[in-house]
Amino acid sequence: MTARPLAAAALAAALLAATVTGCAQSVDPGGRLDRKAAHPAGQAPPAESPAGGTQAYRRWGLPSPLPPAPPPSPRPRLRTAGPGLPPVVDHIPTRDKVVFLTYGDGAERDPRFVDMVRELRLPVSMFLTDSVVGPGYAHFARLREVGANVQNHTLDHPALRGMPYAGQRAEICGQQDKLRERFGIRPRLFRPPHGTYDTTTLRAAGDCGLSAVVLWTEGERLRPGNIVLVGPPQVERTMRLLREVQEKGLSVARLTDYL
Question: What predicted TM-score, i.e. pTM, was given to this entire model?
């Protein structure tokens, strides 16, 4: 064999050895890709996020992931106090095993609550009062971005019952205008401050374009269809409530899917 063929053969053998060595470093005996070899030297493979996916429930003290709400049943027919007046509801008449989480005023603006809503995908409803929220609308914009919905709770939080129509309309329609200015939406649901209202309230709410007046379910027992008013501190109370929701085989649904 001449010198040139001998050199070519040596080169081919060296290339084959390098290929075999490289494969041996990147594949284990079971044929799986070696994680260290799949990333540049000195760089660890990306870690899984502890707050995402199925891991989120652990951060919030839950024993297991929250089950998603079932597809909503057809919206129930609700009685009204008269033609053109929106219905008043303190629970949803449904056989679906769901409850509804609602929050009032907008006084509390804990940034952890934004994380909770995002990570657990909670379909919560926030009933906002302009004078209480004050400069805190950015917090509720972040909540809307992660799935919360914003509803009307008047401009200044007065007890409406007994007020003249003009005053009640100004409070309710005024907050509709504020929320449209802030978020580009006009809510469909209204919660009267302190839960007090009269027929004038219902007329003003209807004239302001609201489709339902939403109170909350009284009592401590959690049952399907309950509209729960969650008070401060929001994060801690929501955590306790979600554990009870799981214990009773329920899930959290979006209120606007039923009203």
Answer: 0.79
